[in-house]
Structures are given as structure tokens and as C-alpha cells.
Amino acid sequence: MNPIYFDHAATAPISNEVVEAMVPVMQDVYGNPSSVHSFGRKARKILDDARNVLATSIGAQEKDIIFTSGGTEADNLAVMGAAKGNQHLGKHIITTAIEHHAVLHPAEQLEVEGFEVTYLPVNEAGLISIDDLKAELREDTILVSVMYVNNETGSIQPIAEIGATLAEHQALFHTDAVQAYGALPLQVDALNVDLLTLSAHKINGPKGIGALYAKDGVSLHPQQHGGEQERKRRPGTENTAAAHGFAKAVELMKENQKERLQTHKRYKKLFLDTLKEEEIDFAINGGRINVPTIVNLHFPGLNVETLLTNFDLDGIAASSGSACTAGSVEPSHVLRAMFGEGDERITSSVRFSFGLANTEENVQEGARKVAKVIRRLTKTS
């Protein structure tokens, strides 16, 4: 039995081209990018080239890209760093109830430290209301953080509209674009964002490296203390090989973006059509404004933990939502925000996400295996 991977939103397999690009750097480019000798200069050039690739991909300047250890650190630096760097202007922050925990937990910590945080609600499609945002904006609001694409449902927030709303306000605007990168056009000026989070492993790059775009002039309070790397915003010796791998993944993403999106759209349709042909009772969580890589399905009368266990036994890798809470299978805070406490969908929904590990054949085979499990569990429930 060949296991079938439907969990690309948690992490995606690294592409062969990325591995091939990283190996020579790991073997031969071992200098510290901060060193002035030839070994360090060689590493610095690779790092600068990678920074330029990332910056170009989102319409930013090279100096505005901060390399981090991943999306979580980038989110933490954006939320904590912007709040503490601008608290002289106010201590009010706005975010949403469906953010990744890499934003929610820093927001909760800021509340402990005396900041006031407003959590915007969402509708059943998982979208915030611009009117709600406008109603909550205050003179002392210093930061608004809204994720571009939700990692559990794939819902797309109106980031450009939010950016336009905040254009004349002092509040900095941060968006976690980890799930949007590669799925949607990202141009920081068009979106009018001040801070934007990226991660390599969601676009078939290496784990352990991410980036934060910080617009020139944005005040960020460092969250770590040490050297003066990353223009004094994130200390620590940079991961040259991973940065090079990240850049290679971005280049491949840009080359094949339209083709990939069409492929993922076909996978998603094939998966859902096959479940319908198998006469499985399910409903899609969320509205029509979503990315082609993610679908969150409600299976009435069944329990998510039982579903995931049985899927795994039959060789299907899926999840209940954020990989950061995997293992506990806690009720989804995203679905709770969408549907309300106590709704059956909170404990009977599964996320399937498509990508490099899929083919039309294994998507259809996987859907049939999912259908087989559903039928078996329905009979025994």
C-alpha cells in the first residue's frame, strides 16, 4: 500500500531541484556571512542573492527582507516586534479569531503585558467584515494583523481592501501570507501592507527558514538579542544553505505558478467529484472565496479523531487543521469562530490539501479510500 499525502498545508515535500541546489552550498560554502574574509564574502553573496529573489517575488526591496527560522518566528517578530516598537503611539491591536497560533499566542502574551487586543469575528465563510474592522479602529490602534489565506479552510481575506482602509491610519498592517505564497499574487505595494510573513516549506523548500517583509521605516523591536545580523532586527548566524534553497523554491514556484494552480484546481475538483460519485455525505466548510490547494470537509455524525486514525490506517494522510496542534486533535478554533461553540462541524471536519506529492491517479484513489472509511465508520456509528 502506497500512502497518499493530502496534508500539504501542514508541510510540503521538498523538491528535488531544491535539494540539488542546497547540497553544494552545505558542502562548500561554510563561511560565516558576517566574516570579512573570502569564505564569508562567498556566503554573503549567496545570502544576498537569495534575499533579492524573495524581495523581487513580492515587489519589495532587498533590504526589507528579514530571514527567520520559519513562519512562526516571522509572525512573532511582526506582532511582538511591531507592538513593542510602536507602543509610544498606543497599545491597541486588532487581529482575527481565526489566525494561526503563531499570531494568536503572541497577541495573548501582549495582553498579559498590558496591550489591548480586539479579535474580529468571521462569518460562516470564514471572512471578516471590513465594517467590523472600521468600527474597531481607534486612534491608539498601532497594529492590525489579518492572515491572507486561512491554513484550515483556505478562505481568502480581502487584504488589499484592508490595506486601503488603513492607508491613512497610523496602524501598521501585517498579513501572514504563508498559505497565500504561490497560490495568489503577492505585491506588497498593491496590498498596502507593512509586514508580511513567508515560509519556505509550504512552497516545496526546506523547513527551518522563513522570512518577514518589513517596509522601510517600520519600527521593529527585536525579539532575540545577540549579534547585528539582518540589520539588527534578527540576530544569529544566517542559514546560508536554507536561504539558497528557499530562493530556488521561489524561482521554481514563479516558473510554474499558473500550471501548478491549474493542476491543484483539477485535483480538488477530482477529489470532490469522486466523493460525490461514491455517494458520501459531506459538506464543504467555508465559502467560494478560497485557494485551490485546501478543502475542509464536514462528515456528519463522525468524530474527527476517529476519522484521522482510520484514514491513516488506510494510508491517507490528512489533518484536522493546523499542524502545530496535531497530536492533540483539539477542536478547531477556526471552525468554532465560523460556526459557534457546540456546532457539530467543529468536531467532525477534516482538512485535505493538495500539492507536489499528488497525481490525478492518487487523488482519485485517495478519495475512494476516504469514501471506504466513511462508509465503514457510518455503519458502526
TrEMBL record:
Region (Disordered): 220-240
Top EC class, one word: transferase
Reaction catalysed by this enzyme: (sulfur carrier)-H + L-cysteine = (sulfur carrier)-SH + L-alanine
GO molecular function, one term: metal ion binding
Keywords: Iron, Iron-sulfur, Metal-binding, Pyridoxal phosphate, Transferase
Cofactors that this protein relies on: pyridoxal 5'-phosphate
UniProt-listed Enzyme Commission number(s): 2.8.1.7
SUPFAM superfamilies in alphabetical order: PLP-dependent transferases
Domain Aminotransferase class V: 4-364
Pfam families in the cross-refs: Aminotran_5
Family note: Belongs to the class-V pyridoxal-phosphate-dependent aminotransferase family. NifS/IscS subfamily.
Name by which UniProt lists this protein: cysteine desulfurase
